[in-house]
Amino acid sequence: MAITYFNSASNPADDANNTTTPIVVTPPASMVAGDLVLFIGQTRAGGGTVSYAISATGGQSWTALAKVDGFDYQSAQLFWCLFNGTWTVDPSISVTGGISAWSAVMHVFRPTTGANTWAVDQAQVGSTYAVPSTPFTVTITGQTTAQANTVTLAGWFSQDDNTWGSLSGTGWVQTGSAQYRNSSGADQSSTYAHKIQTSAAATANVSKNQATIGGDSGMSLIVTFYEISAGVFLPRPNKPILQAVNRASTY
Length: 251
Hints:
Blueprint lengths: L3 E8 L11 E2 L11 E9 L6 E6 L6 E2 L3 E2 L4 E9 L9 E5 L5 E9 L6 E13 L7 E4 L9 E9 L5 E5 L4 E2 L5 E3 L5 E10 L8 E5 L7 E11 L12 H6 L5
Antiparallel strand pairs: 1-9, 2-8, 3-7, 3-9, 4-8, 5-7, 6-7, 10-18, 11-17, 12-16, 12-18, 13-17, 14-16, 15-16
């Protein structure tokens, strides 16, 4: 058995507008306890410092990865959680310091069994890319996983409302819509791909082309999560090991 991609959701929908923060996203229907939820906020600010936060948790416990900054005050940040089985409200990401084009995308992956949990296998790597030349290909360097049963997510972010196509990279699959464009304000775009592996191995590099309005500079991220079999002890994130040991009986 292997991890599976379940579904995605976003605000705004591709090639629509959103000028409101917090950015509220209605999660995909029929999620189940144990699902891995990846929630990404994105903005293109007019200047200054931009920060992100989960403003409505939806009853989940979220972990933030590092914010990724790009050109022209563009930025994005990924938050993730282990879904507990119930959304109390639709979750949202608040953005401080942006000016108008606010976007959020949610991707959901399902473990081989709902009793399993998740952790980061390979730390997120964020980078920027310059204006690509024809055919406007942007390549993200792959990662080498340490664990079996992993899912690696790659994300591309553009400072224009590009469409994206021509995915290449052995075993990589488009995640959700072909792209998520926000046509409000200064406008922006993002696109994603993932690779699921059942044994530790290199993911290979992954590339996508800016299909229209290219080329535009931007930024990218890549991160790998792995599925932890039920009964395997792992210290809670951001807690001292001693505390985790003392609380072992709660797992």
